[in-house]
Input
Amino acid sequence: MEALGGWLRQVVAAVLLAALIDLLLPNRTMQRYVRLVAGLFILLTLAGPLLSWIKGDMEAKLTAGIEWAEREPAGGDDGSQLEAILAEAKRIGAGRDEQAAKLAVAGLEAGIKTVVEQEEGVVVEAVEVTATPAADGALTVERVKVRLADSNTVIAAESDEPIAEVDPVSPVVVDIDIGADTDKGEGGDRAVPAAAQNAAGQADDGREGRIAALVAGRFGIGTSKVDVYGASGG
Amino acid sequence: MDILQIVGIGLLTAVLILVIREQKPMFAFLLATFFGIAVFLALIGKIGGVVSMIEELADRSGIQSVYLKTMLKIIGIAYIAEFGAQIVRDAGLDSIASKIEFAGKMLILVMAVPIISIIIETVLGLLPAGGGA
Output
């Protein structure tokens, strides 16, 4: 009942307001237009409960719409509009910078992948570049991770440390005992893959160091920032 | 007493304009414009009183403030457009005056766009999906 009373009061106030507006008009030329708007307001007040029931945010939508209608023909004569435009420009600029940074990082990743695959003849599974924007808007590369597809070793190449020297191959002693052929043959078979794996690991060490140096040399990134991982590493 | 002053100044300005118009039509136009602005500025305080009274009334009746603001803006647009059109018409440029009135009408109609859109959206929302069929 109270809501009905409030609605009725609003309707009466809207009609009174429309009558007052009609009275205040300077001449007849604008009368039709003002009557249209006043009539719409009365209609909106009459259908207010229905509109609120169908659209919960009717009032907010109406306020936003009228603010838009006021702002649009004003032509930027108040400071708030200028601030809004500046804020919008700042937001768009930030979005564009972010997009440019993403594009640059993606290009760098693709470039590193191509160079490593061409120069070293290995399959690069993924290249991950971490870059942070500096104060002047330029990007600073923080970390480059190169993940190889066919290696099991993990190497973090450091710029200050020289690449570890390859240990000389230790002499392989093959003890052949013909008499115990059937018993020790299995042990001998085990020894050969171990040695081969060791050699392969050293080869990987050298290759990953070379990749780090290659990336550092080609793209001007410090070798301390370049990490090369095998497929299962990291 | 304000009305007496305004009418007095108006009569004086009219006489002055009639005298000057023969010699310098430009000054006559400027005088008319100046008188219009002076009357408007003299009455601005009274207009403020009326507006505050209407605002209080609307506040007490619980009507949405956006309605009142829009209505007052419409009145302002109508008065300013009429004022400008009359000044230009006094200068003998009826076509420019009608353009000013046209701009006023359009700006008043722009105020109605959000209301119309909300009403149309609601009516379309009431219809069942694919209501045209």
User: Anything to note?
Assistant: Chain A touches chain B through 45 residues (CB under 8 Å). The helical segments of chain A are 2-24, 31-46, 48-54, 58-74, 79-120, 181-219. Residues 97-229 of chain A form one domain.
